[in-house]
Write a structure and sequence with these properties.
Chain lengths: 139, 139
């Protein structure tokens, strides 16, 4: 899963810069042209959700500063919050060592989850059970 | 991407319990039998890495309390830290609303990244460049 390009960056010291264009060109998209994207609330560090981006979604997110995913079910760009109003402002985008995962630090407006819970990870394994760890936020 | 099973859980209140076995049976694995897994440092909330698990890896992780992924490159179970010593003790496992992503809160020993950096997201987009945001930890 590791390309020569990302391997070549490993020895670079903190503060080194490389061209964004080269990084984006070398991203390791899956066979559907997508990478998984973790959205993390910037201030609280809460992990909000995981979704997917293609190159176009990544570029739009960077250009507009508002997170845009690729909806696998609808097969179209999904501008987070376009129907719910629960948008994500991009604070910072990071890319991982293999160039196959993106981490977006965001400022989330409203609940991130379609169930109206603050984040999507509302099921916690507890022994032989799974417990619901949060309630929907009333709007 | 949303199954009837996970849809049926959405209305449950905080504190409700469902059977772990039913949840695991209904997970939405991809066509390779895998789900993406986010590893987050429990105390600091730092996002460490993203990797993949099949059902066997999930069950082993829960049973042993030590994180075990599926290595897509080696096509085998990957007990994190088995060669490096940089293990992840499972503190809590959470599952998302669609049953297609796992979040593991872990206690990471040593650096999480194969580059010896604390986490895998060492590349930060900054304008038209990407900056290296951390150095390898000297061992």
């Amino acid at each position: 899963m590791e390309t020569t390009y990302f391997k070549s960056l490993e020895g670079f010291s903190q503060g080194s810069n490389v061209d964004l264009e080269a990084v984006l060109e070398n991203l390791n998209f899956n066979d559907q042209g997508l990478v998984p994207v973790i959205a993390q609330q910037y201030a609280s560090k809460e992990v909000l959700m995981l979704a997917w981006m293609n190159l176009e979604a990544i570029e739009e997110t960077l250009n507009k500063g508002r997170v845009c995913y690729w909806s696998r079910s609808r097969q179209t760009l999904w501008r987070k919050g376009e129907s719910s109003g629960n948008t994500q402002r991009l604070v910072e985008m990071r890319i991982d060592c293999d160039g196959d995962t993106v981490l977006c630090l965001v400022e989330q407006t409203g609940p991130a989850c379609h169930t109206n819970r603050p984040n999507c990870f509302y099921l916690t394994v507890s022994g032989k059970h799974v417990a619901v760890n949060s309630d929907p936020v009333s709007s």
